[in-house]
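Per reviewer request, we include the raw input and output of the structure prediction for the construct analysed in the revised manuscript.
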Amino acid sequence: MKETSLSKKQKASQSTIDRLAQNLVELVEMFRKGGPAGDYKWFGSTHPHTIFESYSGYQSGHSIFNTVVQDVLKLNPDMLSMSEVERKLLYTFLKQQASWPAQLGKQEIMNKAKGCLNELVQFKDWHDIDFPIANLLLEGEPVKLGHVTFMAATEQDIKQWEKDYMALLQGIADIHVFGRVNAPGDFEKALSYSISQVNRALDIVRILCFPFGPFTDTCRIGVIGEISFNTSTPIRINQRQFVTQFRDTGFYEQPELRKHILSKLEQHQWNLINQLILKPEDSRDNLENKLLDGIHWLGEATKPATSRARFAKISFALETLIGGEPKDEDLKVRGITAMLAERAAFVAGKDLADRLKVDADIRKYYGWRSDIVHGGRRDISLSDIDNFGILVRRLALALLEKLDELGGNLSTVEELESWVRTQRYTLPGQS
């Protein structure tokens, strides 16, 4: 049964390639009708679409070209970026065929087009991309978190860096760790993928280690260029030389990954986090995605910013984690604050007294959100920001465990609301 399904998929892919090859032949014929295509400085274009936009006779080819690009991306979405597909189709195929009109006939061009398209659809590549992590120390062996491996910088790494950027490396001592991702795709696709994975891992590191309120400005774990202001981001691809430059100044906290971060959670909690990150995106359910998005906003709240901005980001995290209402009429009756407070109390509260405390604190802090957003409150204390952040972090970890405990019975907002309702009306002694 599986082979039949695969065969159908292959046939559908080949049918698409045949259709797209015909489109490419049509574009070649358009360029061969005369006009300036043969003499045009293709590589001087600021964008692949320039060749279509510059001459009236080619403008109809713009939409044809876009269709081919988008359909190729659908056939190999994990490996190809739009810029790579555009570059290969325009410069490697169209330019060559349009520039030599006497060389190949229509069927030969068709065969060349199919070859080019098949090459793109079958393209696979992986790159080890290393991101220097500012202000983090690592004791001992590498640590894997999701798709990221944190590695201590070696003496050779430092020497290579010093050799390439001798004039700019006054602050190099602050770089002791690299985050490596084995990323799929062409360079642009791999870079985009690796950035998202490193930042996801760093969000988790930050929310466990850094304060949300006091001393946040001295806590800057992150990728150079994103966590530090006025910098660009250096990266290393396939363990070769670094590219781009950076400059950084200031003294910041340098926590140790094992001692100050990994020790914050029990091993089974780390296992749950890793399982969630490593789970394919298309197989995650609604609440799993909300949990990851909520962690992201909590991580953002630990970065240097104004007090009100950090408080607002913690509010976003709360809303993302457990917000969403299946029935509008229920929302009108209870209100958003009451809904969030109740859900938080049942997810994170350990007993009656604890639930009442969580409920009251969520009502208090989230009640300030509207004032902040609309400019009515400007006196948020750093201790309040920290307490709010710690409370929402606790909620995120409790939700992580609750999703594991209840499995597929807690995968959507509707199921979360149903579960809370059940908890609300369950009598003592009932399960």
